[in-house]
């Protein structure tokens, strides 16, 4: 029986320590890239892929995420009185009317796999997507998650997004082992979390987009802590391979690693250069710096 991918999980409970001190009080996911918070880019990608239920796995200091996706009646009344209808339309249409939000608490930081497991009761017995907000992937014509959903619908198997990486980067990622040559996508036969130099099975590392079958929840529930003493999603995917087909997709699009300061700044510059309101003036400013 074929299933439509209609639910997506956003693990957003982390402390964002690489962006301290600002993340002491502001969730990293709410940091702006030009004029939209980082998390909105991931949400827009999910909605464009057909997702209709957004499941945010949060923690105690992340209330502003819920506030952002909720309505703000006082602000809307103010914008109406001031006749700022363009701004009113903007704040009222952050989410389409047919998209809903669910918030689940992760009470202890026990790893990505544990965060996904926290969403089990909400996801239920159906395939679902996972989007890591740190990975901002630019492709308006064919959003990354839509590419994964298309492969899932064709193969009826789990799919992970991968990117070709330089040798020195492989130890920072889960690296896939493939059954053959990766021609757009290929079946996986293994995955290794953060392999040591020279031991990686390929040059393709997993990035923050997944479409997984609900079988992953059974595996996560029985999973022992792995690298860093955390429950690793990569370890559960490695076990999933023993029971089901899992595919690696080399996605089309430009990925910005906004979990790092340099990646975040790069994304800010690139999105600023194509922003309809400021792009021309921003380019002039950059040229004037004579970097």
Largest sheet: 9 strands, mixed
Give the termini distance in whole angstroms.
57 Å
Apparent shape: globular
Low-confidence stretches: none
Explain this structure to me?
The protein is of the alpha/beta class and 291 residues long. The chain has one domain: Spore Coat Polysaccharide Biosynthesis Protein SpsA, Chain A (Alpha-Beta Complex), CATH 3.90.550. It contains eleven helices and 13 strands. The strands form three sheets. It has a nine-stranded mixed beta sheet with strand order 5-4-1-6-11-8-12-10-9, sandwiched between helices. It has a two-stranded antiparallel ribbon with strand order 2-3. Strands 7-13 form a two-stranded antiparallel sheet. A hairpin with a 2-residue loop joins strand 2 and strand 3 (36-37). The termini are far apart.
State the gist of this model.
It contains eleven helices and 13 strands.
Search tags:
alpha/beta, 13 strands, single chain, 291 residues, globular, Spore Coat Polysaccharide Biosynthesis Protein SpsA, Chain A, 9-stranded mixed sheet
Secondary structure: elements and pairs:
Blueprint: E1 7-11, E2 32-33, E3 36-37, H1 38-48, E4 53-58, H2 63-69, H3 73-81, H4 85-92, E5 100-105, H5 112-118, H6 120-123, E6 128-131, E7 135-138, H7 144-155, E8 158-164, E9 174-178, E10 185-193, E11 204-212, H8 215-221, H9 233-240, E12 246-250, E13 254-257, H10 261-273, H11 279-289
Parallel strand pairs: 1-4, 1-6, 4-5, 8-12
Antiparallel strand pairs: 2-3, 6-11, 7-13, 8-11, 9-10, 10-12
């Amino acid at each position: 029986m074929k299933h439509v991918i209609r639910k997506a999980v956003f693990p957003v409970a982390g402390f964002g320590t690489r962006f301290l001190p600002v993340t002491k009080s502001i969730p990293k996911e709410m940091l702006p890239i030009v004029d939209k918070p980082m998390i909105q880019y991931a949400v827009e990608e999910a909605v464009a892929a057909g997702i209709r239920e957004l499941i945010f796995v949060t923690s105690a200091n992340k209330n502003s995420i819920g506030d952002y996706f909720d309505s703000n009646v006082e602000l809307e009344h103010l914008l109406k009185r001031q006749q700022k209808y363009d701004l009113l339309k903007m704040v009222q249409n952050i989410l389409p009317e047919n998209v809903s939000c669910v918030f689940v608490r992760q009470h202890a930081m026990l790893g990505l796999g544990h965060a996904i497991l926290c969403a089990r009761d909400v996801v239920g017995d159906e395939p679902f997507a996972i989007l890591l907000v740190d990975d901002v992937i630019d492709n308006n014509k064919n959003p990354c998650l839509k590419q994964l959903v298309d492969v899932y619908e064709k193969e009826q198997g789990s799919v992970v997004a991968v990117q070709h990486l330089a040798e020195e980067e492989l130890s920072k990622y889960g690296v896939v082992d493939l059954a053959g040559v990766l021609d757009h996508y290929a079946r996986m036969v293994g995955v290794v979390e953060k392999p040591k130099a020279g031991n990686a099975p390929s040059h393709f590392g997993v990035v923050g987009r997944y479409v997984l079958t609900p079988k992953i929840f059974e595996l996560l529930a029985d999973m022992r802590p792995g690298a860093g003493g955390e429950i690793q999603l990569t370890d559960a995917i490695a076990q999933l391979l023993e029971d089901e087909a899992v595919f690696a997709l080399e996605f089309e699009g430009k990925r910005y690693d906004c979990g790092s300061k340099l990646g975040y700044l790069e994304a800010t510059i690139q999105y600023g250069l194509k922003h309809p309101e400021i792009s021309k003036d921003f380019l002039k400013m950059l040229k004037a710096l004579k970097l």
